[in-house]
Amino acid sequence: MKRIIYVILVLIVPQLIVYTLITRFDINLGSDESEEIELVNYTKKADKVIRKVVDHAKFEVLQQEFERPQDVTLACLSCHTERHHEIMANNHWTWDRSEKLANRDSVVVVGKKNIINNFCIGIGGSEKTCSRCHIGYGWEDKSFDFSKEENIDCLVCHDQSGTYVKAKGAAGYPAVGLDLNLISQSVGSPKRENCGVCHYWGGGGNNVKHGDLDDAMNSCSREVDVHMAIDGEDMSCVECHKTENHAIPGKVYALSSEDKNRVTCVQCHTEAPHTDKLLNDHFQRIACQTCHIPEYAKANATKMVWDWSTAGRLDEHGNTIHESDADGNHNYLSIKGTFVYDDHVVPEYYWFNGLADHLLITDSITETPVQMNTLEGSYNDKGANCSTGSCSKIWPVKVHRGKQPYDVVSKKIVQPKLWSPNKGDSAYWTDFDWDNSIEAGMKYVGLPYSGKYDFVETEMYWPLNHQVSPADKSLQCTSCHSSSPDSRLANLKDFYLPGRDRFKMIDYAGIFLVLFALLGVIIHGGIRIVLRKNCLHDNK
Amino acid sequence: MKVYIYKIFERFWHWTQVTLIVLLAVTGFEIHGYYELFGYREAVMFHDRTAWAFLVLIVFAIFWHFTTGEWKQYVPTMKLVKEQISYYITGIFTGAEHPTNKLVYNKFNPLQRIIYLGLKILVIPVMVISGFAYMYLNYPNVAVELSGLGLVAAIHTMGAFFLIVFIIAHVYLTTTGHKPLSSIKAMITGWEEMDEKEAREMVISEMEYSLKKTKEHFLSEKDSSAFLDKALEETEEKLGVKKVTKFRDVIANSGAGYFKIDSTGHYIEVNKAWVGLYKYGSIEEIIGKHYSLSRSGNALKQLDETFNKVLSGETVEHGLVIRKCKDGSVGYHTITMTPWIEDEKIKGVQGFILDVDSTNAAKMEWDNN
After folding, report:
1. Residues B22 and B165 reside in one and the same domain
2. ipTM for this prediction
3. Does A380 touch chain B (CB under 8 A)?
């Protein structure tokens, strides 16, 4: 009895203690829901004190009868003097900026003004409609004067009446018949709706371009966007895109190239937001967005594919055709071609170090699909000093795949003229003639066109940042660490990922050795049992 | 028969190692993606904690091995390796003896020595180093960062498979002891069941080991056997195992009669017990007399035959014989007679007689028939 107790004490109890310590003790798997999330540089909604500091309705200058919207601007500037310098330096106004493209030596001036994408291709020749999203009045063509401060549209960003709206095809001018007194007296810090009117609706429809910026986010649930949810922190855009003196941080890699002026999760959440060190370590090589934006286009579908080559089909009366898919999203428009929309989309994943290249209209095509804005990065790109975060991280990306016209002789993507208020003006959307529209477009941007076009497949990358999901919806370990073809990183093959990757030869050899050992034991033991008399050292 | 083999730390170490290695294997292969048991995140966390626990245990074990000198158990030898292998391949099936015995200073057979040493200095260090590198050097926030996990993962996986194979063979070979479960029981209780022969060798080895150690304590040119004798005697007394007594004393105390007869058949030497059994008055009374006076009739004839056999070099162990005492009465005894050799020549015979009382004598006679 004494010996049994002794054996239990010495051999079994320590094992239980060891096992318990390892598997149970202080098991903190960081279920963040119960814990208060630690934040810096942010005041929670509940703690915010909102005071109205000024009532614009009381200002006489805003009670005058405005003849032109420019008069509102001048009224603003009469008090807010010199602000026009700030906004006129902002690329919301310039639609370009000097950027050094990744892997290129020269600095180029790129922006919405001259970049080409695989949505509406480019604004060249169609400014009058595209500039509906320009914070100015009157950008009809190249003659627009970017130095004239009265052309600044203050209201599109600052209107709080919810009644301000820019007219279609009107070079950025507001719709006719607006109450500019009401609007100008309502002004305040931009709300989601102000930013959203362009940033949600880019590409010609709600959530078309980004996939993670959707009209629904004006009033959404935590499932759609944990930050902007009305039942949550109800954050506006500018609470992250903190703006001082009209300098708005944040950039989209559809246009930008350099790793600067970015808005990050870290500004509030720090570099070590998890209780689990292992998860915090992941931050070194994985963007927060990768795990915390498990899917995008959660409220409304986004455009995944745009095939221009099928455009131009008209019905028997020569009228344009609108066709929609089962969800009510366009899948064919005569003016634009065939689309594929999708919602609740699983992102694609790429290494990304914050630098991007862009296909300029002067660049020749060297590969298909044509890469519109290559995101730089690889596993081995660890930057000069990785701990600063400049090394490549895995990012979730919306990839928009297109098929668009190019010059088969010069092997360059072409800029067709798309829009005109009148037929017979060579605009594709009115005339449906590619040759004419490309010729007109290329002539407008001052580039040659051989006269021969075809369509080429293109890919454009949109790193995702918005529509962050609640913590319990974020990706789990096996979302990536899995050998299943459903692993989120199944296609990111340039490194060894535990749980996903195995060396087949080692595994086969190992399994073979184990089976061989087992077989040996069975045979050896079997013989011993059969010859029991002689064996097992029981000579008696 | 049971012999104490495994000390308490050794057993604690062994079974804790079992727990940790099993946990490492189970969580490790989950991380490798073979199955889902704890959950990936938990598996990683447990694997990490277990690794640290294992490291602590290794430090303790290293300390123990060096302070107790047990590290010598792992010094490899090629002696008897072949025999050990051939025992496992063939001998074990025919009931052959183990080619090696467990000795105190040599608990492991030569194969075990090589394999365990290999584990200790190759597999375990490689697993520990590759494992901690895998776990902690994979992100750029450390001074020394791996260029990728592929290499350490490959090494770590190979080591894991090797350890699984080792465990299979190791567990199976525990069944090749005295009885199938004796080795496992020994690792639990410390006491291993052995057959008598092996146990004896174990005990001898233990004594030998102690004596050798004792000898190491004094270095002297002088013959130290007397010193050792004395020490041994005292030790025996302390332990109460007073068994190794002097040969002469054995004879003196046992009541066995001793005799020595020359080649012509005349007594040269007898002891007191002999004189007593034959009822003579003194030793001198019998010296120089012929042995024929000790028997009568057939018994004498038998003794003549035995005497001649022994003179020609044989050793004869007789069963019951009837002796003729001085006063003419008879007695019973057994007799062992061996040649008396001096200068490589048989000079005569010598031997012992052991008295048998009449009751036992009758029984022995019955047994013989």
Report:
1. yes
2. 0.87
3. yes
